[in-house]
Specification:
Strand content of chain A: 25-35%
CATH topology of the largest domain in chain B: MetI-like fold
Order of helices and strands of chain B: HHHEHHEHHHHHHHHH
Order of helices and strands of chain A: EEEHEEHEHHHEHEHEEHHEEEEEEE
CATH class of the largest domain in chain B: Mainly Alpha
Helix content of chain A: 25-40%
Bound molecules: adenosine-5'-triphosphate, magnesium ion
Strand order of the largest sheet of chain B: 1-2
Strand order of the largest sheet of chain A: 6-7-8-3-9-10
Largest interface: A-B, 25 and 17 residues
Radius of gyration of chain A: 23 Å
CATH architecture of the largest domain in chain B: Orthogonal Bundle
Shape of chain B: globular
Distance between the termini of chain A: 38 Å
Helix content of chain B: 55-70%
Strand content of chain B: under 5%
Number of domains of chain A: 2
Number of strands of chain A: 17
Oligomer: heterodimer
Number of helices of chain A: 9
Chain lengths: 330, 313
C-alpha cells in the first residue's frame, strides 16, 4: 500500500543501456502493467524497485521516502521472478512458508500452516504441497512462485510474467484471482506481461517501454485509443494495428507519413476496393485478411459473415491514427 | 533415478561395459585385498612363497601394531605367570612379552585431527571465498583467482626448505596447528576453484528471492546457497581430506614428536623387531578406514559432484 515514484532511472549493464531516464509515478493501489518487447527493460525496472540492482542514476521513492539505499528486505516488496525462484531443495510447502519464516516476519507455525493452506487453495496447488519443488510442471512452479509472493502482505507486488506458462483456462482463472486479491488488499502491483488480455483487463495503468525508455504511461484505454506513437499503437490490440502509407486512402493531413488503422477503424461497404484473401474463424472473433492494391489489411467481421476468400469489397478508414516520419502521432 | 539419455545402450554394449568395470574394479581392489589379508596373517604366512591365499587368520599384526614388545631369555620366559589376556597370549606365542603400548594410536589420532581439521578449514574458507568470487565485484578478480591457482603450479614440496625455516622460527614445527595451516594452504586453491564452479551454477535468483523475502545476505547464503552447494562441498571435502590424510613428505619433514601423523609412522614399524609385515599391513588397513567411511557417507553427493553438474536431475 504505497505510491511508487521512479525519477530519471538509468541503468546500464556494461555498455548495454537497459534503462534510460525512466520516470513514472505509480499511484497507491494501482495495478501497473509494463509492456514492451523482449529486452526493453521490464525486468530491469522491477529489479531496481526491488533493490536487487542499484540504478546508475535516478531515484526510487516508496510512499514518499527514498529507498535507493535500502536493502530488498527493508523495502517490503514481494517479487515473482520470470524464472528460477523456487528453492529446489525444499518442498512446495516449505517454499511457500519460506517468506513467513524470515527474520522480519517470523510467524508462529500455526499461522504459517493456515496461510500456506489458504494460498495453495487459491492457486490450486494444495495437492502438491509435499512435492519437492523440482517435481512440478512449469505451470505448477509458476503458481508456487506466485504463492510465495501472496503469502506475505507487502506494500508492493512485483510480478514478472507470472502467468506465462499456464494453460488458457488456468490463466483466465488466475487473472481473475489476482485481480480480486489486488482489489482486496489494495496493494500496489507492477506486472509484466506480453499478454494483451491481461494488460487490458487487469491494469489500471499501462507503461510501455521501448529499448529502455518509457514511451507512454496511462490507462489501458488511453494507451489503446490515444497512443503517442506507432510503436505504442502496435503494442496493444489483437489483431495488430494496420500501418499503411498515409496516402493509401487518398489525401492525408500535413506531416503524416503513416496511417494507423485498428481493425475496428476499417469500415466495410464503401471506399477503396479490396480483395478478401482469407477468412480466419477464431471462435470469438472472425478475422478478414484483405489486400488493397499492394497493402495487406486485417480487420474483424461478423462471426456469421458470408464473405469467403476471393470476395471483392470496399473499405474506408474511420477515425484513423496518423503518424509522422519518426512514428509519432501528428 | 530415471534414464538420462534418449538412446538406451544396447544389450551388448552394456555387457562390454559391465565386463570392463568389473575388470577395472578387480585390478584396483587387488592391492587393497592384499594389504587387508596380510594384516590378518602370521609373520610366517606373510612372507611365504608362493603367497598363501588361504591361511589361518591371526590378530598378531594388529596386536603388534598397538604394542611394543621385548624378547626375554628362555629361563625367565618359563617363570612368567600365564598370559592374562588374549593379546598377551599372542605376543607370548612369538616368544616375547608386551613392554607397553605403541605410539600408533597417538599418530592415528594426530592424522584425524590434522586431516579433518585442515579439511574443515579449507572448506569453510574456500566456500566463503568462492561465494565472494562468484557473486561480488571483487577488484582484480581474475588476477586473484589466477594467483590462487598458481600456488598449485609447482609441487608443494618444492618450497619445503623455506617452510621448514619459517615454521621453525614461528614455533609451528611439530604442532597440530602448523600442520593444519600447511595442509589448508595447499588445499585452499583447489577448494576455491572447485567450489566457485559449483556456486556459479546456482542461479542468483534463488538468493535474490530470499533477500526480497526478508532474509539478510548471510542468511540467504546459509539457507539457500549452502544446501544447494552441498554436493560440491562434499566432493571438495573428499579431495581435501585425501590430500591431507595421505601427505607424507611434509609430515616427515615437519613432525617428529607431538604432531606426527600416521603416514611417516607406519614405515617405522618395519624396524621394530624384524620385518613385521602383518603389523605394517594392519596399520595401513586401519589408516584406510576414515577416508573410506567419509567417502561412503558422502557418496550420495559424490556422483553428482565429481561429474561437475553434468548429471542433473
Ligand atoms: N545481468 C545482466 N547483465 C547484462 N545485461 C543485462 C543483464 N540483465 C539485463 N541485461 C540487458 O538489459 C536489457 C534489458 O533487459 P530486461 O531483462 O530488463 O528485459 P525484459 O524487458 O525483461 O525482456 P524479456 O521480455 O525478454 O524478459 C537487455 O538488453 C538485456 O540484455
Ligand atoms: Mg524480463
Amino acid at each position: 500500500m504505497a505510491e511508487v515514484s521512479l525519477v530519471g532511472l538509468t541503468k546500464s549493464y556494461g555498455t548495454n543501456r537497459a534503462l534510460a531516464d525512466v520516470s513514472m509515478t505509480i499511484p497507491d493501489g494501482a495495478f501497473v502493467v509494463l509492456l514492451g518487447p523482449t529486452g526493453a527493460g521490464k525486468t530491469t525496472t522491477l529489479r531496481l524497485i526491488a533493490g536487487l540492482d542499484r540504478p546508475d542514476a535516478g531515484d526510487i521513492r516508496i510512499a514518499g521516502a527514498p529507498v535507493t539505499a535500502d536493502t530488498p528486505a527493508q523495502r517490503d516488496v514481494a517479487m515473482v521472478f520470470q524464472q528460477y525462484s523456487l528453492y529446489p531443495h525444499l518442498t512446495v510447502r516449505e517454499n511457500l512458508a519460506f517468506p513467513l519464516r524470515s527474520p522480519v516476519l517470523n510467524w508462529p507455525e500455526a499461522e504459517i500452516t493456515r496461510k500456506v493452506g489458504e494460498v495453495a487453495e487459491v492457486l490450486r496447488i494444495a495437492h502438491k504441497l509435499d512435492n519437492k519443488a523440482t517435481q512440478l510442471s512449469g505451470g505448477e512452479m509458476q503458481r508456487v512462485s506466485i504463492g510465495r509472493a501472496l503469502v506475505r502482505n507487502p506494500r508492493i507486488y512485483l510480478m514478472d510474467e507470472p502467468l506465462s506458462s499456464l494453460d488458457a483456462k488456468l490463466r483466465a482463472d488466475l487473472r481473475i484471482e489476482l485481480k480480486r486479491i489486488h482489489a482486496e488488499l489494495g496493494a500496489t502491483f507492477l506486472y509484466v506481461t506480453h499478454d494483451q488480455i491481461e494488460a487490458m483487463t487487469m491494469a489500471t495503468h499501462v507503461g510501455v517501454l521501448d529499448a529502455g525508455r518509457l514511451v507512454q504511461f496511462g490507462t489501458p484505454r488511453e494507451i489503446y485509443e490515444n497512443p503517442v506513437s506507432a510503436y505504442v499503437a502496435s503494442r496493444l490490440g489483437q489483431p495488430r494495428i494496420n500501418l499503411l502509407p498515409a496516402d493509401a486512402f487518398g489525401p492525408a493531413p500535413a506531416g503524416a507519413v503513416q496511417i494507423g488503422l485498428r481493425p475496428e477503424h476499417v469500415r466495410i461497404g464503401e471506399g477503396q476496393p479490396a480483395t478478401v484473401r482469407r477468412v480466419e474463424r477464431l471462435g470469438d472473433q472472425t478475422r478478414l485478411h484483405l489486400t488493397m492494391g499492394p497493402h495487406e489489411i486485417v480487420t474483424l467481421t461478423d462471426p456469421h459473415t458470408a464473405l469467403a476468400a476471393g470476395a471483392q469489397i470496399s473499405i474506408r478508414p474511420d477515425t484513423p491514427l496518423w503518424f509522422d516520419a519518426s512514428g509519432n502521432r501528428t | 533415478m530415471s534414464a538420462y539419455s534418449i538412446t538406451e545402450p544396447t544389450r551388448r554394449s552394456k555387457w562390454v561395459a559391465a565386463l570392463l568395470v568389473t575388470l577395472y574394479t578387480v585390478i584396483t581392489l587387488l592391492p587393497l585385498v592384499w594389504i587387508i589379508s596380510t594384516g590378518f596373517k602370521s609373520g610366517q604366512d606373510s612372507i611365504s612363497y608362493p603367497p598363501k591365499v588361504v591361511f589361518q587368520p591371526s590378530l598378531e599384526g594388529y596386536v603388534n601394531l598397538f604394542t611394543t614388545r621385548t624378547r626375554v631369555s628362555s629361563d625367565e620366559f618359563g617363570n612368567l605367570p600365564p598370559p592374562a589376556t588374549w593379546y598377551d597370549e599372542i605376543v607370548r606365542d612369538q616368544g616375547m612379552v608386551i613392554a607397553g603400548p605403541s605410539r600408533f594410536g597417538e599418530r592415528f589420532l594426530n592424522s584425524v585431527i590434522i586431516g579433518f581439521g585442515s579439511t574443515f578449514l579449507s572448506i569453510v574458507l574456500g566456500t566463503l571465498a568462492a561465494y565472494a568470487f562468484s557473486r561480488f565485484k571483487v577488484p582484480l578478480k581474475d588476477d586473484l583467482l589466477f594467483f590462487i591457482l598458481s600456488t598449485r603450479m609447482m609441487p608443494p614440496i618444492a618450497v619445503a626448505i623455506p617452510i621448514f625455516l619459517m615454521y621453525r622460527s614461528l614455533g609451528l614445527s611439530d604442532t597440530h596447528l602448523g600442520m593444519i595451516l600447511l595442509y589448508t594452504a595447499v588445499n585452499i586453491s583447489l577448494a576455491v576453484w572447485l567450489l566457485k564452479g559449483f556456486i556459479d551454477e546456482i542461479p542468483r535468483e534463488y538468493e535474490e528471492a530470499a533477500l526480497i523475502d526478508g532474509y539478510t545476505r548471510f542468511q540467504a547464503f546459509r539457507k539457500v546457497v549452502l544446501p544447494q552447494a552441498a554436493t560440491g562441498i562434499a566432493s571438495t571435502a573428499i579431495f581435501c581430506l585425501i590430500f591431507a590424510w595421505n601427505e607424507y613428505a611434509f609430515a616427515v619433514l615437519l613432525t617428529s614428536g607431538t604432531a606426527q601423523t600416521a603416514p611417516p609412522f607406519i614405515p617405522t614399524i618395519i624396524g621394530v623387531g624384524g620385518q613385521d609385515w602383518p603389523a605394517v599391513a594392519a596399520g595401513a588397513t586401519i589408516f584406510l578406514l576414515p577416508v573410506m567411511i567419509f567417502t561412503i557417507l558422502l557418496r550420495k553427493h559424490l556422483l553428482r559432484g565429481i561429474t561437475f553438474g553434468a548429471v542433473r536431475k
